[in-house]
Amino acid sequence: xxxxxxxxxxxxxxxxxxxxxxxxxxxxxxxxxxxxxxxxxxxxxxxxxxxxxxxxxxxxxxxxxxxxxxxxxxxxxxxxxxxxxxxxxxxxxxxxxxxxxxxxxxxxxxxxxxxxxxxxxxxxxxxxxxxxxxxxxxxxxxxxxxxxxxxxxxxxxxxxxxxxxxxxxxxxxxxxxxxxxxxxxxxxxxxxxxxxxxxxxxxxxxxxxxxxxxxxxxxxxxxxxxxxxxxxxxxxxxxxxxxxxxxxxxxxxxxxxxxxxxxxxxxxxxxxxxxxxxxxxxxxxxxxxxxxxxxxxxxxxxxxxxxxxxxxxxxxxxxxxxxxxxxxxxxxxxxxxxxxxxxxxxxxxxxxxxxxxxxxxxxxxxxxxxxxxxxxxxxxxxxxxxxxxxxxxx
Length: 394
Ligand code: SF4
Ligand code: SF4
Ligand code: SF4
What we know:
This protein is an alpha+beta fold. It has helices spanning about 60-70, 145-155, 165-170, 220-225, 235-250, 270-280, 295, 345-355, 370-375, 380-394, and strands spanning about 5-10, 15-25, 30-35, 40-45, 55, 75-80, 85-90, 115-120, 125-130, 135-140, 170-175, 205, 210-215, 230, 305-310, 315-325, 335, 335-340. A hairpin with a 2-residue loop joins β17 (about 335) and β18 (about 335-340). α6 (about 270-280) crosses α8.
């Protein structure tokens, strides 16, 4: 069960009383543990949301980034041959903020595709746990990907805390940027996860023409930019943000209504559409190849497999985890057989999870980034499947 807790603190830097509201759960000793570390609402003593808005010259962003790199590990979008992706950067000249979507999501900063969890050597009585607690910034992350991280937060800290994830999350600062342009396959506007961000950031940039509007979303963000002299934004500059958002909203070409599927999916479980999309192909797509590319690029997919590598002496060993996918045949392999052998069943399960109605429920919903559409070699489009399911209902 989750609780809402009000925490009053005095911030020595700003010399103000601050009230945090935080969702959390209680462990067996009934100790409150905040779940959403940087997603706190920062209020002043009159319970007004503290949201400071500044403007920053575009050329000053590089300077800011350079100052961050002295103290933090910084991941930012960088242009590579295959497209833009989040990389650890040590030269601000490599920054590429004008991207629409990255090939893989920035979730890898918190949740690497493959990681060693621990290793041991009994002969030396050694045990090493790979908890990463370096202070890290994700710079230039888009609204859909921030919303995906909020879902991962919920999954990795809900009933059981994943200590490897939360160690990184506690040390992470989210410096996001709103999207002025929608990509061909983006549909976040239909899901309320973009193109502009409302929560989940520590700092947020919006391109308002010649300058960026810089908004502070948490105390962590405020501390990060302390010492910089930014001019407060004027009403006109704040209004400009609204205009930019309206313009961005007009660029979307894909729309979905996953909510209307809620009541019909159970009866659509045996619909012929799953056989058609997965096994036969449609007018617009080939049959599913079970390659799992859709799930590997999805910012909200969290399933993983665990492997132990033990030395033949049985004295030494390591445990790794690696991203897994319900689209792969081995995923449902259990003692006694495989409970999801058919491609149709696997594709259906994947889509149901993304619609938010699989066993994983709310914590693995789609955020409309469009990466699975971009990455699918068979041309399968989740928005198209949702549209056809909705139509057949009518
Ligand atoms: S299901 Fe597709 S569009 Fe939705 S979040 Fe995952 S990759 Fe993005
Ligand atoms: S069960 Fe859900 S979260 Fe896990 S791989 Fe499948 S779609 Fe992704
Ligand atoms: S990327 Fe396309 S072909 Fe590959 S598993 Fe996903 S839906 Fe099937």
